[in-house]
Amino acid sequence: MGKFSKGILGHFSGTVGTVVGSTWRGIGYMRSKANKKTGAATQGQLEQQLKFSLMIKFLQTLKGLLEITYQNYAVNMTGSNSALSFNLKNAITGVYPAFAIDYSIALLSRGDLPNATGPAASAGAAGKVNFTWTNNAGTGKAADTDVAVLIVYCPDKALSIYTTNGAARNAGTDLFDVTAFSGKTVQTWLAFISADGNEISNSVFTGQVNVV
User: pLDDT tens digits for 31-57?
Assistant: First the structure.
């Protein structure tokens, strides 16, 4: 049974007839009561379920990061949900049931701040990934003090290591410790965030790296 908290025009929680009321982050909303499922899932439903499962497995390793790097696109939703929506539409490749994530298209950060010029990643000393880029401060909103966001994902372990406190844009390089992925093949991305944390760049895929 539903409960009204502020009279007939107020928010309510629970089920009233065919309507379900609830709140999210202090925002009241209503939705239709779900119908009971009948029959087997359609081909389209099976495809969507597989895509969803694949992307969730990947993005859940980056949940804390996405709340920061998708903050400007998190309108009435979390940063993680915004990232899920974008990447489900754009970063799945293949034909059912052989779907895969196209890491070169996946965006793990979205914003108007320019990324650096010529970003790249390579194996560094044991357990390290060496990120390099060319400082392009002065291009648009780009500043010397922008901070590198370094992201490394290991498919074999289904784990990510990342930082939003990398080297400054004008450093041109950062050696990132990913010792937990030693001997593994990883996928890498680079983005930048302004010193005040308000401006964020799109991430750029910096390639696959074999960690020494």
Answer: 666 666 567 889 999 999 999 999 999
d(CA 3, CA 8): 10
Please give the structure tokens belonging to residue 18. 């065919």
Class for the domain spanning 43-210:
mainly beta
Residue spans per domain, the chain:
3-32, 43-210
| Residue 104: C-alpha distances to residues 1, 38, 101 (Å) | 49, 39, 9
Query: Do the beta carbons of residue 88 and residue 54 sit within 8 Å?
Result: no
Rounded-to-10 torsion of CA 132, 133, 137, 139: -160
Q: What tokens does 109 get?
A: 């950060």
Instruction: Summarize pLDDT for 90-141 with one digit per residue, the tens.
Output: 999 999 999 999 999 999 999 999 999 999 999 999 999 999 999 999 999 9
Alpha-carbon distance of 200 to 84, in angstroms, equals: 18
**Alpha-carbon dihedral sign for residues 160, 68, 107, 145:** negative
